[in-house]
Each structure stands twice: as C-alpha cells, then as structure tokens.
Write a structure and sequence with these properties.
Length: about 850
C-alpha cells in the first residue's frame, strides 16, 4: 500500500510546475514512462493504491512501472491506465510513446529467445505432436518433460517451443538452468531471461510475477533437476499470479506441484526385426550422426542395429557411439559395447561436461541423490532384468521376507529414484515392476563394487530368489500354474544370476535349494540342458552332504528327471534311485511315489513296459494312500501312456479319459495337455482322424498358451501323422518339421527319432525313396546311441515304410543312404540329406 511518505518521496528533488498546469509536449517527449505516469497520477490526485484500484492492477505493478522496474507495458495495460486517469488522446499518445522509448532503450530489456536447434529432430514425431497439442492449446499450463540424462529432453523441448511459440502473443522465453549452481540463482536466472533489472532481491519472485502480469507468455525452463525444489516454488507462485502464463520444463526429477503434467520422454524406437532396421529412429539417428562425421555406415544395418539395441535407444549414447566411428568400425563398436559403455565419451566441445560422456550424464544425477537413495541405487544393480518391490526391500533390508516398515522404506526410496528418472517402472497384470537402463545399471554396479558390499548384496539377492523359486514350485501343479510360470519367466534373468553366484561362491546349500526348486519350471519351459547342468554342478559342490536331506532328495529327483528328458537314461536312473533312497529314508511317501513315476518313465522309453506299468501302479497306490488326487491322476495318465505305446488302445483310452476329467477339475494345465495328447494319439491310431484332430488341436492350443514346449512338440508330431494319413502331405511335412525343430531344441532324442521315422514315411510316399532311407538310418543311429527301441504302436508304419523303400532301392543304394543317415550329425539330419554332396537342403526332398 502506498503511504504519505511514498507520495512525498515520489516528488523529492523534482521541480514542480509554477502554474500547477501539465507540462507541454516537449517536456513529455523528454520524460521517461515512469516519470510521466507518476505525474499523471499525481495530477489526478490519486495514490498508487487508488490508481491500482481504478485500473484493475496491483499496487506493486504501479510501483514497478513508475520506478522503471517494469518496462514496455502491453497495450492493454496502457488502455487501463489511460481510462483510470481520464487521459485524452494527446496524453495517451505521449504515454504510449514513452513506453515505446523505454521498451527500446537497450538490448538488456529483451527476453531471451528459445535457441534454434543445430540439427534435425529424429524419431520424435509422435512425442512432438502430443506435447505440442497439450502445451500449445493450453490443455496444461505446466508440462514437465522427464526422463534420464541423455534421453533427449532438451532437444524435444526446443522442438516443442519452436512449434508453439506463435500461439503465445507475447512469445516464449528461454531459461537455461544448467549454469546455475545452487537454488539462490534460480530466480535471478529467470529474471535475467525475461530482460528484467530487479532492484529488490528480497521480493524477486513477486517482481517477476508483476513483470509477467497478464501477458500471454510461454516460459521454457531447461535442466531443473539440481535445483528442482526452488524451481517448483517459483513455478507455483508464477502460475498462481499470472493467469496467461504457461511453463514448459525439462527435468530428470518431477516438480511435484499442483497442476503439473508429466511427459516421460522415451528412448528412441528400436528395430523390432531385421526387416525394419532401416526404418528405426534409433538407427536413423546413428546413421545421421556417423555420416556427419564423414563415416556413413553403408550396408552395415545389422551392425548398427546391434549398437542401438545395446544402447537401448538412448539418443545421447547413440550420438556418442556414432562419434567413435572416426576410429572404429561399426562392428568393432558393437563388440566393444557388449562388454562396457566406457568408450562413450567425446561429445561436442560446446556441451556441458555431463553431456560429453554417458557416465558423466549419469554421475551428475547420482551426485544429487541423498545417502539413502545412493545406497538403494547401488544395491539395485544386483538385479538383472528388473525386480519387484518385495525384491528391492529384501536386498535393502537383508530379510528374505521384509516386514511392512522395510517395504515402506523401500517403496519411498524407489519412488524417489523413479521420480529422478534413474529407475523405470512398468505395470502388468496388477504388478509394478522396476528396471534400469543397461548403462545406468553398469554405473550403479560400479558404485556397489566401490562400496565393498557386492557379495553381501548378491547373497541377499540369492536368498530372496531361493525363497521365490520354492514358493513358485508349490503352484506349478494346479490352477495357478500358468500365472506362476509367467512369474518365473519374468524373473528368469535374476534366477540365473542367483544360480551363477551360488555356484561361484560354492555355497552348496543355496545352490542345491535353488536348482532343486527350479527343476519343474525347467521341465515345463523346456530348459532341460540348463536346468540339468545347474543340478549336476550343485550336487557336485563340496559340502553337499551337509545340505538338509529333503533338499538333496529334491535336487536328485530334478537331476534325474531332466537327464531322462534328454534321454540320458543311465544318468537318470542313478539320480532317481538315489532320490528314491533318500525319500524313503525321510519317510516322504509323496516324494517316493513321484520318483517311482519318473523311474517308470525311463522304463517306458526303454521299451520295458512291464516294469514301467509296475512302477506306475506302485506310484498310484502310494498317492491313493495319501488321498493325493493330483498324483493319482498322473498315475492314470502314465499308465494310459504305457498302454497306448504298447498298442493296448482300449485300456489306454479308459485310463487317459479318467486322467483328463480329473485334470480339468484340478485345473492342472500340463496334465490336461498330456491327457489330450494321449487321447488324440489313441484316436489317430484307431483311425478316428476327426476326433484325433480335435483333441490334438486343443492340446496344442493349451500347450502354446502355457508355454509348455514338450506338449507343443508332441501335439505337432501327432497332428502331422493325422494329416499324412489324410493324404495332405504338404501340411504333414510342415507340422512334422516344426515338431522336429522343437524336439531337437529340447534335446529329446527319443521323440526326435520317431519324428524322423514319420518323415521317412512321408518321403517314401512322395517317391523320395533315397531320402527316406537316409531318415530311417538317422533314426536308427539315434536309437542305438540312447538305447531306446521303436515303440510297439509305431512299428507297423515303420515296417511298411522300410519294406516299400527296400522294394524300390537296390541293396547297395539303400545301404549307402541308410549309413549316411546313421553317420550324420543331428543338425544336418534336421536340415536334409545331401544326396549329391554339399549342403543339406530339405526343400529338395519334399
């Protein structure tokens, strides 16, 4: 409020007109706007407060105009002042001229313009359109572009400003905060960018608000993270006081004030396949920047794709990598990046230090963290492929099952790291999951190593995932199977890391527990070789004898089962018999029954159907004694399996229907898929091809939905036979080829031999007799190695095929083709038979 003292002060040292009249036009021409406004106000008999009330302006605004703190008022303000002072046309013209002269008094009064970008914006069309719509149409008054260092926030911010500035009558003002070292410098930086010359630092924010007033202006504030608290305070005040102001900011950390809209700037889109490499924005950026360096990567799209995928589409990383093409080939660059991001330095000489290397950009963010945030940031580098809140809380607290307070602390720190763009969050099926960009994780791992807590973190990480694997194992039979398989898939990289640490550290207890807890998952997802190796290495560790018996028994069972699935029958038998003895010693009836079931599987594939049936019957009796409906259902299914392999189709059908009906009730997806495969196969061998197709199509769909690879492979195999029996040879070849590829990848040589024999039948029917002999020879070679005969039910078809081949080929030709098949590596067999030498090619044989 103006006071009497203020009024006297306004006139101190100024000559008064002798006649009390207004000065003439010559005097007005020489008088500044502030002086002229003060004179008109005084002559009207008004205080600053009175003029402010009549004009609809603030008292501070009137004071700022009279004292020269605010120059060049807008035409609307001049009209308001003229109306309030009842000025005539001449006086209004004088006031306008004075305002114009003051506004043109010097360059210091001009706003700082938004810089023009030096190069083309690549791959941001969607982002630009969305942000431009929100900011330019005033859908939001405060927009923060957020994301990690190097993702391209500033470059996108410049592009948005260039697109929308024309929509703001008073233009756009650029406020770069990178040079500002502490919070006290933020308001002066804003004032300087607005062209202000403030006199009172104590009320600088108010002066900025008065200066902006009702102007239709866009304030573009860049690099806020290191002074985010002060920026938030100033932005909140300006938005409240300046109704026509919009603010666009870029910051690694959110402002977190009312009205803030956030746009998380994503990395550039990566090529999804080899076919769309050249259309990928990430690839285009690399090519553009490398070409600008005089090193156009012509014809190297595949290597460029390797580079940008490794860099996860981060623009700064891509530009720094492209700069290295002056000394490295793109292939060398891609190889270097596989092991370290340390070569990503050498940014533009005019760039800030944090933009001249990728680590510099991350280090700048890291330096802004509090000690607790730094601790969690480093510890989180122990995760591979992401983590959940429970996992983070476990590693942070060292507790396998973190309590509510530990979870709350982890949640708070995680939230801060997400807001600071060091952690990404994704949401799927109601579960939040977190991860880091690879380069950020590598930096965090360096911090963890420097802290000396790497082994401690790895131990806590392994302990959490051991508990997770053991919990998951209990859900892998029954209605929750699909959900838990997906959860295990999501944590597979972490499980592998925990397994690797346990084996490297030689901690037998942890290794045996983890490998044993994962064997069923490895079976269902087809990781036979990997899971088997984990189990064998864990069981071979020194100190295994001291591991609790139930864990050793489970690991022996798993090792035996995965060896059996790869047709290593002797190894499987040794491991399973060891597990059987251990479970019997423990008095574990369920474990004993399960091992008997697996030993029955070994006998079944070796063609010892009597032993197999006896073991499955014993297994059934034990499960029945426990009232275990799932175990009983599996015993029925296995007995049905033995029956149809032996050729007893009627008995097999009864057994497998019981199993199917029970599995449906239990919600056991794997069991249901197996019973459908068995029933479809029984129908196929019974000549009921339509029924067989329906059952096998259902099993295929279910297996694919579950990701149950053995079920997929078997379903394709039997569907191929159905199509061959119908005479649809092309379709049969396609299905059998897919089945062969699946069985080969799984390592199931027993079933691979059967598929090769079926392909031989197809080849013979197409008069590719020599190739058919080659395939039979290959199957014979496999069966001899693994010690498994042709199943009884498959013998009639195979014998018919062999007789047809022998009737067509002379003995020497048959023997040559058959011997070539026996000698060929399995990979070559799957590709085809080189009848005239050279590279095998299946297409020439069907």
């Amino acid at each position: 409020m103006a006071t009497a003292t203020d009024e006297v002060g306004d006139w101190v040292g100024r000559p008064l007109p002798s006649d009390g009249s207004r000065r003439g036009s010559d005097d007005a021409q020489a008088t500044g706007f502030g002086d002229l406004l003060r004179r008109h106000r005084r002559e009207a008999g008004l205080s600053q407060e009175g003029l402010a009330e009549l004009a609809g302006l603030s008292v501070d605004a009137i004071a700022a105009l009279e004292r020269g703190r605010r120059r060049a008022p807008r035409p609307h303000t001049l009209r308001l002042l003229g109306d309030a002072l009842h000025l005539g046309a001449p006086e209004r013209a004088q006031l306008t001229a004075a305002a114009r002269r003051d506004g043109d008094a010097g360059p210091a009064s001009a706003m700082r313009a938004v810089p023009v970008a030096a190069n083309e914006l690549i791959g941001r069309a969607h982002d630009l359109a969305e942000i431009t719509h929100l900011v330019g149409d005033r859908a939001t008054r405060l927009m923060t572009l957020s994301g990690p260092g190097g993702v391209g926030k500033t470059r996108l911010e410049l592009a948005v400003a260039a697109e929308v500035t024309h929509r703001f009558e008073d233009g756009a003002c650029w406020v770069p905060l990178a040079p500002v070292s502490d919070r006290s410098g933020v308001a002066p930086a804003v004032a300087a960018s607005l062209g202000m010359h403030p006199l009172d630092a104590g009320r600088l924010v108010q002066e900025i608000a008065e200066h902006i007033g009702r102007r239709n202006l866009l304030l573009v504030v860049d690099n806020c993270a290191h002074v985010v608290g002060e920026v938030a305070t100033i932005c909140a005040a300006l938005l409240e006081s300046c109704p026509n102001l919009s603010i666009l900011t870029s910051s690694r950390e959110l402002l977190r004030i009312a009205g803030e809209s956030v746009y998380v700037v994503p990395p550039l889109t990566l090529p999804e396949s080899d076919d769309d490499v050249d259309d990928s924005p990430a690839v285009k950026l690399f090519v553009d920047r490398a070409t600008a360096r005089g090193q156009a990567p012509v014809g190297q799209s595949d290597q460029v794709a390797r580079v940008v995928r490794r860099l996860e589409g981060m623009p700064l990383a891509i530009e720094l990598a492209a700069a290295r093409t002056n000394v490295l080939t793109v292939e060398e660059l891609a190889t270097e990046l596989e092991t370290s991001f340390g070569i990503l330095t050498g940014g533009a000489s005019t760039a800030s230090p944090r933009q001249q290397s990728l680590y510099g950009a991350i280090e700048w963010s890291h330096d802004l963290l509090t000690p607790p945030e730094r601790e969690l940031f480093a510890l989180l580098s122990v995760f591979v492929g992401g983590w959940t809140l429970n996992a983070a809380a476990s590693v942070l607290s060292g507790s396998v099952v973190p309590g509510p307070l530990e979870r709350a602390r982890a949640l708070d720190l995680t939230s801060r790291l997400v807001d600071k763009s060091l952690i990404r969050v994704s949401r799927d099926r109601g579960i939040a999951r977190y991860d880091m960009l690879a380069v950020i994780r590598e930096f965090a791992a360096g911090q963890l190593a420097a802290s000396g807590r790497g082994e401690e973190a790895a131990q806590h990480h392994a302990a959490f995932y051991i508990a997770f694997a053991e919990e998951a194992e209990h859900h892998l039979r029954g209605a929750d199977q699909a959900e838990w398989l997906d959860r295990l898939d999501g944590e597979l990289d972490n499980l592998r890391a925990a397994m690797a640490w346990s084996l490297r550290a030689g901690t037998a207890g942890e290794a045996v527990r983890l490998a044993g807890g994962l064997w069923l998952f490895c079976y269902l997802r087809g990781h036979y070789a990997e899971g088997g190796e984990w189990l064998e290495r864990a069981l071979a560790l020194r100190g295994t004898a001291g591991v609790e018996p139930q864990y050793r028994a489970r690991a022996s069972l798993g090792a035996g089962m995965l060896a059996f699935l790869q047709c290593e029958y002797d190894v499987a038998t040794t491991r399973l018999e060891s597990a059987l003895a251990q479970y019997k010693e423990l008095g574990d009836t369920a474990g004993t029954a399960l091992v008997m079931q697996r030993l029955g599987g070994v006998a079944r594939e070796r063609g010892d159907y009597v032993t197999a049936e006896n073991l499955h019957c014993q297994s059934y009796d034990l499960f029945e004694s426990l009232g275990d409906r799932s175990g009983m259902s599996w015993a029925h299914n296995q007995l049905g399996f033995v029956a149809w392999l032996r050729g007893d189709l009627e008995i097999a059908a009864r057994r497998c229907r019981r199993a199917r009906d029970s599995f449906r009730v239990l919600g056991d997806g794997e069991g249901l898929a197996w019973s459908l495969i068995s029933l479809g196969t029984i129908a196929q061998y019974s000549g009921e091809l339509t029924e067989a197709e329906d059952l096998l199509t259902e099993s295929l769909a279910l297996s694919q939905r579950l990701g149950y690879r053995e079920g997929v492979a078997w379903s394709l195999n039997q569907l191929g036979i159905v199509e061959r029996r119908r005479g649809f040879i092309d379709r049969a070849v396609h299905l059998l080829d897919e089945s062969l590829a699946e069985h080969r990848d799984l390592g199931d040589r027993w079933r691979t031999a059967s598929v090769l024999e079926e392909l031989a039948t197809v080849a013979q029917q197409r008069d590719r007799t020599e190739y058919a002999a080659f395939l039979i020879g290959a199957a014979d070679g496999i069966r001899e190695v693994i010690g498994a005969p042709v199943p009884e039910v498959e013998k009639p078809d195979l014998l018919a095929t062999r007789r047809a081949i022998e009737q067509t080929l002379d003995r020497r030709a048959f023997r040559a083709a058959w011997s070539a098949g026996r000698a060929a590596p399995l990979a070559a067999v799957a590709d085809g038979y080189p009848a005239t030498g050279g590279t095998p090619d299946r297409s020439t044989h069907f």
